[in-house]
């Protein structure tokens, strides 16, 4: 996971099914003050069944995430980085998914802008 001082972090998630909490991948792009971009992504075991539509959309399925950490395992490691930088997302979909996953796992979330 990138570390350092960034202008902002762009966040993107993919979900396994229609349940917003079913995050199966988290990707971040950290934009440095010199405009360099540090990218990082992780597959996440959503602990839910994959919908064929979602798998067709993003190409991630149960086999892809087998052995991957769960959201509850990976999120606490991400919070320190995400909490100290402005965060942006492509749409409210990402914020809704993060909020739902945090609620489902009783975990804190950073403010998304």
What would you say this structure looks like, in words?
With 113 residues, this protein is α+β, with helices and mostly antiparallel strands. The chain has a single domain (6-105), classed as Nucleotidyltransferase, domain 5 (2-Layer Sandwich), CATH 3.30.420. The chain contains four helices and four strands, in the order βββαααβα. It has helices at residues 52-58, 62-65, 71-83, 92-105, and strands at residues 6-15, 23-32, 37-43, 87-89. The chain has a four-stranded mixed sheet with strand order 3-2-1-4. A hairpin with a 7-residue loop joins strand 1 (6-15) and strand 2 (23-32).
Order of helices and strands: EEEHHHEH
Physical arrangement of strands within the biggest beta sheet? 3-2-1-4
Count the strands?
4
Share of helix, binned: 25-40%
Q: How far apart are the termini?
A: 21 Å
Major beta sheet summary: 4 strands, mixed
CATH architecture descriptor text: 2-Layer Sandwich
Calculate the mean pLDDT score and round it: 93
Question: Can you say what the CATH homologous superfamily is?
Answer: Ribonuclease H-like superfamily/Ribonuclease H
Stated plainly, the CATH topology is called: Nucleotidyltransferase, domain 5
Helix count from the secondary structure assignment: 4
Q: Please state roughly what percent of the residues sit in beta strands, choosing from under 5%, 5-15%, 15-25%, 25-35%, 35-45% or over 45%.
A: 25-35%
Pfam families: RNase_T (PF00929)
Domain Exonuclease: 9-105
GO molecular function, one term: exonuclease activity
Protein name: Exonuclease
């Amino acid at each position: 996971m990138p570390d350092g001082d960034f202008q902002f972090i762009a966040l993107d998630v993919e979900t396994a099914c229609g349940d917003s909490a079913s995050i199966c991948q988290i990707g971040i792009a950290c934009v440095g003050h010199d405009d360099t971009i540090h990218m990082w992504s992780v597959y996440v075991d959503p602990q839910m069944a994959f919908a064929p539509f979602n798998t067709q959309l993003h190409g991630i399925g149960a086999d892809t995430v087998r052995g991957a950490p769960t959201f509850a395992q990976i999120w606490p490691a991400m919070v320190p980085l995400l909490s100290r930088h402005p965060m942006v997302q492509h749409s409210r979909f990402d914020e809704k998914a993060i909020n739902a996953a945090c609620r489902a796992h009783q975990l804190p979330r950073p403010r998304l802008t």
